[in-house]
Amino acid sequence: FVDVTASPEVRPDPVLTELVKNWKDNVDKALGVTIGHSRGGIGPEAVVGQIVANAWLSEMGGDVAIVNKGGIRQVIPAGPITHATIWGVLPFDNRIMRLSITGEDLEKELANPKFIAAGAERNPGGKWLIGGKPVDKKKRYAVLVTDFVYMGGDGSLLSTYDPRGVSLGIQWRDPVIAWIEKQKTRADVPLEDKLPKGVGTR
Fold first, then answer.
1. Pair 41, 75: CB distance under 8 Å
2. How far is CA 55 from the centre of its chain?
3. How far is residue 185's CA from residue 140's CA, in Å, rounded to a whole number?
4. Burial status of residue 121 (CB atoms within 10 A of its CB: 0-12, 13-18, 19 or more)
5. DSSP E strands: which ranges in 115-187?
6. Which of 194, 196, 172, 198 is nearest to 183 (CA)?
7. How does pLDDT run across 164-173, given as a tens digit for each residue?
8. DSSP string of 50-90, one letter each residue
9. I need a labelling partner for 125 at 20 to 30 A (CA). Which of 3, 51, 84, 169 fits?
10. CA 57 to each of CA 42, 50, 175: distance values in angstroms, whole numbers, following the listed order
């Protein structure tokens, strides 16, 4: 957030000034709501992306969630976690979509180095597992992504694999905020202690 100062030659409009102040107060109040606590900060961005993807699956269901690394713009700093923290992490107004993708096509997307996935992992032999089981190339999986990724962002071909992807009309921040709130973290029980298995911290 950047405060803009008017030129000394410009006389502020009193009505507009009051309007801006009221909206800024409302925004500051909403974004200042504390939803959790981090002991020492959580990062790097790849780890934060894992938290985001896991939160989607926890709150919305599905087999796999895919987040693009470029959409994660900062780590979670130490101390109170507020709505503003999550807006800083996920500043873009992306919405979540639910797709139906075959295992064969899904593996192609999972191999994209620009993506972070939850619900899918590689075993020591390099094979993809979903729900602990090898990917069935013919089976269709429920996949959560943002509209940005669906429309080809960072090289995705998802819209060709499922031309009928469904927009859920949900901002990608909302499930993350909801999941963190449910963890009921505080200074002595930080979010680091509540992270899903396999999600590391710095």
1. yes
2. 8
3. 36
4. middle
5. 115-118, 120-122, 128-130, 133-134, 140-146, 166-171
6. 194
7. 999 999 999 9
8. HHHHHHHHHHH--SEEEEEGGG--S-B-SEEEEHHHHHHHS
9. 51
10. 20, 11, 9
The token duo for 51 is: 């938290």
| The predicted structure's pLDDT at residue 26 | 73
For 55-68, what is the mean pLDDT? 97
Contact (CB, 8 A) for 165 and 105: no
Phi, psi of 48 (to 5 degrees): -60, -40
Distance (Å, rounded) from C-alpha 58 to C-alpha 65? 10
What distances in angstroms separate CA 107 from CA 91, 112, 171, 198, one per listed residue?
28, 9, 26, 20
Q: What number of CA atoms fall less than 13 Å from residue 102's CA on the CB side?
A: 7
pLDDT (average), residues 161-185: 97
Residues 32/1, Cβ–Cβ less than 8 Å? no
Cα(50)–Cα(120) distance, integer angstroms: 11
**Is the pLDDT reported for residue 23 higher than 90?**
no
> Model's pTM, two decimal places?
0.85
Q: Which DSSP string corresponds to 133-147?
A: EE--TTSEEEEEEEH
